[in-house]
Structures
1.
Amino acid sequence: MNKYEECLFYYIMEHEWPDLLEQEAYQVLAESRDEALNALTETFTPEQRRLYMAYEPRCNAACSAEMRHLFHKSFHLGLHLAR
C-alpha cells in the first residue's frame, strides 16, 4: 500500500472497526470462537501451550497482512469503477 492507502486503512480500522464489534451477529460469532478456543486451550499440555503462544502472534500478523492486501485491492477496484 502507498502512504495514502495506508492512512485510509488505519482510519477505517480506528473509526469503523468498533462498529463491527458492536454488531450482534459479529458478537455471536466472536463469542463462539472464543468459547471454542478456551475449550481447546484448557486441554493443552505446557508444551502445547508454549507452541500455541508462539503461533498466535504469527497468525495475527498473517491475518493483518491479508486484511491490508484485501483493502488495497478493494481500494483500487473502487478507483477503477469510479472512472
Note: The longest helix spans residues 46-82.
2.
Amino acid sequence: MNKAAFSKLIEAMRSLSNEVNDQEICRRLETLMLTSKDDLNLSVVNHLLDNPMEFDPKEIPEPYTMYVKHFIYMVKRNEKLGISSRFHSIPEPKPNRKKE
C-alpha cells in the first residue's frame, strides 16, 4: 500500500533532522507507518507542511500527534538557526471517473 502522506511527513522530518534525537523519532515514525493499516489524511498533512506554525497537532489522530509536535518543534528550532523550512505539499489524488 502506498502511504503518500506518511512518506511525505517522514521525508520532511528527515530534512529537518540535525540531532540524534530527531533521527530516532523519524525511525520510530517510520516503524509506526510500516505497521499501520491506513495512511494519514493527505489534506491534513499538506496543511501541516504548508503552515506548520499555524497547524493544530490535534488534527492528526493519536498516536501520531507527538510526531507532529516534534516536527513543529524542529521547524521552529531550524528557523531560529536560520535554516529554511519550506516544504512542498503533494497534490491529492483525483477520484477515478468511470467511462460509461
Note: Helices lie at 4-16, 20-35, 42-50, 65-80.
3.
Amino acid sequence: MLFGRLNGEQHALLELVALPVCVVCARADEAGRRSLQGVLRDGVNDVGVRDDWRSRGGLCGRHWRVWRHLESPPLSSAILLEDLLGTYLDSDRLGAVRCPACDVSERAEARAITALRRLPNAPLERALADGPGLLCLRHLDALPEGHVRSRFRTRLEELLEHLREQVRTSDHRFAAERRGPHADAWLRALRVFGGDV
C-alpha cells in the first residue's frame, strides 16, 4: 500500500493496520525481537554486549520466551547463558533485571506514538478502510486528542458493536445466521486490553 510523503515509521505503522493488532505494540515487539536476533547472530561474541547483559541480569521472562522461540544456534545461547549463570553463581544473587530488549521495545514504542501523533488524516483513513488494525487502551491513552485518537476510538466503538453481535448470535435462536466480522471480536478485544496478547 502506498501512502505518499510519510516517514519510515509512519509507513510501517500504516502497513500494520492491515492486521488485527495494536500497531504500536506490534512495532515494539518487532524491535525487541530484532534486537535479540542481532545478539544471537553476532552480539554474543561482543564482549561489551555480554558485559551489558551481565550488569543487567539478562532478560525479563517475556523476552526469554521470545529468545527460546527464535531460530538460533545452540552455541550462541550456551555462551551467553554460561556467562549469565556464572555471574549469578559468583554473586549468589540475581538482583533486579533491566532487560535490554525491553529498553529497545520502549524506544520503538515512543517512536511509534510520536509517528502516530504526526500522521496525516488521509493515509490513516485509507489504511483503516482496508484493515482491522487498532490500538490497545494504553496506547490510545498515550495519544492527545485529535484525528488519530478519534479515529482509533471509533474503531473501538465498532469493536464494541461486533462484540454485542457476537454475543447475540451465540444465542441458539440465531445460530443459523451467517457469521460476519464479529466472529473474532473477542480476540480483537483481548488485544485492546492486553496489547500484545
Note: The two ends are 26 Å apart (CA to CA).
4.
Amino acid sequence: MRYDYWLKHTPITMITEERAFYILQLEESATADEIVARYEILKDQYRKIKDETEDLRTRLAYQLKQIELDDVFIYFRRKQRI
C-alpha cells in the first residue's frame, strides 16, 4: 500500500482543546504548570504500566495512550498554552 494512499484514507482524531483537557483529566481553567505536571504524571504512569505488563494488548493500549498524551502536549505547545 502506498504511503500517500494511507494518509488520505486513515481516519485521524483531531485534538481539540476540550478533548485535550479531557485526556489530561483537568479543568479548562488549568494553568500551564498544572498541564505540564499532569502530562508528566500520566506519561510516567502509562510507561510504568506498559513496561510492567506482559499482555501484548495492554502494552499496545498504553503505548497508544502515551502517543495520545504526546499529541496533547504538542497541541498545547502549538497553541502557546504551555
Note: Helices lie at 3-9, 17-24, 32-52, 56-78.
